[in-house]
Structures are given as C-alpha cells and as structure tokens.
Write a structure and sequence with these properties.
The structure is a homodimer.
Chain A lengths: L3 E6 L3 E2 L5 E2 L5 H13 L4 E5 L3 H16 L1 H5 L1 H7 L2 E4 L2 H12 L4 E4 L10 H9 L6 E6 L6 H4 L4 E2 L14 H13 L2
Parallel strand pairs in A: 1-4, 1-7, 4-5, 6-7, 6-8
Antiparallel strand pairs in A: 2-3
Chain lengths: 185, 185
C-alpha cells in the first residue's frame, strides 16, 4: 500500500473570475481535513500558505487543541491534528514528503473541472499495487488550483461527479470523498 | 432510482460525555451540506433545530446568498442553498418528505459507532432497484444522534471506516462520503 500525503494549497489558487490569488486559511478547514486525513491513514497533510501571519494563525489553531483546552476536551481531535504540517510552499511540502518517504512522491492534481484524466478507481488500484510509490494529492482552496500547479502534477484526477452535472463541492467535502474512494473500506 | 432526502439533526444529539443536548447551527454546515446535497441530487436537505432563534439564524445565512451579496457573487452556491429547508423537528421533516414524495420515506440512521448494520453498497443497490421507496438519511451534529433517534429508523447504516479504527470525521465529511458512496459516479 502506497504511503499517502496531501496538501491543501492557498496559493496559487483561482478566484471566481479565474484570477490567481492567495486564499485565507480557515480553522474549520484545518479541523475537518485533519480528521479526514487521519481517518484514511494519510501520513502527513500539509497546510500550504506563503504568508507568515496565516501560518501562525494555523499554528495557533493546532496548538490550542494540542496543549490547552483541546487536549482535555477531545483527545481524538488532538490525535488528528498531529497529522498536519504547516509549510510555506508546495516545494517545501514535497521536500518534507521526500524526506519522510525516502523517495519523491507522485503528484496528483484535483479539480472540479478535469475530465479525461485518471479515475479514482484507477488511482486506488495503482496505490494498492506492490512497490507503489508514495502519492501526494493536491487540493485547491478558493475556486481551485491555478493552472501552473497542474503543470507540476504527474496525474490529473477526474472531477468528482454525482448523478448530474452540478459538482460545486467544498474543498472539505472533496478531500473527504477522494480519500474515501481511494482508501475507504 | 429512489428519491433521496437528508436531515441534519441538532436535537436530540449527544455531547462528548453521552449526554443529550441541543447543538448550535453553524453557517459552514449549511453551506457544505447544501453543496454536497445538490451535487448528489438530494431532493431536499432539512436543517432540524427546535429553537426559533437558531432557525432564524439559518434562514439569515441562506437569504444572504439568495437575495443579497451571494446572488451576484456565486449563483452556483445560491442554487445549492435552495435544496435546504429549515424545520423544528424530525417529524416536521418527515411530514414534508411524505408530502413531496407522496409516501413515507424509509428512515436511515448514521453513526460513527454502528457495526453489523447495513453497508453503503447494500443501500445503494436497494435505492437503484425498481419501485424503491424514498430514503431519508439522518445525520447527527455534536457527538452523534441520540439513541431515541435510532429507534425510529428502518435501517442503521454501518460506520464509515478507513484502513484503521480511527473514524472521527466531521458531520460535513460524513454527509459527503455517504452521499458519494450511494450516488457517486
């Protein structure tokens, strides 16, 4: 079974007009993604943000649960938050993963607009094969990852679809669904 | 294909000590669940809360996107929010569903602690059979649905599991994953 990593990207991402922007970290993203990541045995989930103030905010949210109120209140949430690592750039996340896994991971791009890419079932089979390399899945906040991020990926995953054409899921929902499709029982 | 409904229950739910409490509505629950519900063709998603102030808060969040800022900002989010209906009790939700679907729905209970219940794959097959009745899936906020809610359900769905035993998902993640498992492409 391939080791699994994920990165929640706040720059470069798109706004609703397709402009490249930096999005803000939200505390609920941190909690939800930590809990989903830990449920599906993600080795490390990176919160990627270029601004120091935003990284400090994320660290405060995590430390609150690690050391203070949260430790006593809910040990399961603390355990999940230990899956997280806050970094400046995608390159920092990849360097850390390469260090942890001893080999550069395959980079998987996700988008609500991709078709003709890899299906989640294929990715699951690939990850379950013997000698599968580690996988790093990239998720965009805002209105999705900037095109320059896709250029760096080895695999583009098809958009998640329900019965119809509408698929305007939150990034929290997209993370959960993709992890479940590739790692759920 | 069976018509699908869901209810996000804020009372009666459990707190971390297993006491029966009323939880607060959060605006992000409203948004995430509307977007996931609309993606997976849920006919109506009920926000169930016994307190008028909380129902008014939920209505304000929805109206903000229907009439004001949100209408111009993001039409896709407005469309999703039209899937929602705010009600006082589970009975009110069931009465509305029975009215919309012309027959009482099968009630499906979800919990992070159920084992030996129905698997999501079985529920999917059941819903895809000819003449399948409408289905109403109940989700608990806080630390999950109170036992009295389970007593009202026709089906208890098994807990969502990843590779290990940890499955402390947010209700937003649980809704997304279950909808994807029973309705995803």
């Amino acid at each position: 079974m391939a080791d699994l990593f994920l990165a929640l990207i706040h720059y470069p991402v798109l706004d609703r007009n397709g402009r490249i922007v930096t999005s803000a970290i939200t505390s609920l993203d941190i909690h939800d993604i930590a809990r989903s990541a830990h449920t599906y045995d993600v080795k490390r989930a990176y919160i990627v943000h270029p601004l120091a103030e935003q990284r400090e905010f994320a660290a405060t949210v995590i430390d609150h649960w690690r050391f203070d109120f949260g430790r006593a209140f809910d040990g399961r949430r603390r355990e999940a938050l230990e899956t997280l690592k806050i970094v400046d750039t995608l390159d920092d996340a990849l360097a850390d993963t390469t260090n942890v896994a001893s080999v550069r991971p395959l980079i998987v791009h996700t988008s609500a607009r991709t078709s003709g890419g890899m299906k989640t079932g294929e990715l699951r089979a690939k990850m379950e094969s013997a000698d599968a390399p580690p996988i790093m899945i990239l998720f965009g906040t805002g209105f999705g990852l900037a095109p320059s991020v896709r250029d760096r990926a080895d695999i583009a995953l098809d958009a998640i679809l329900g019965p119809g054409d509408y698929n305007h899921l939150s990034v929290r929902a997209a993370v959960s669904i993709i992890l479940d499709r590739i790692r759920g029982r």
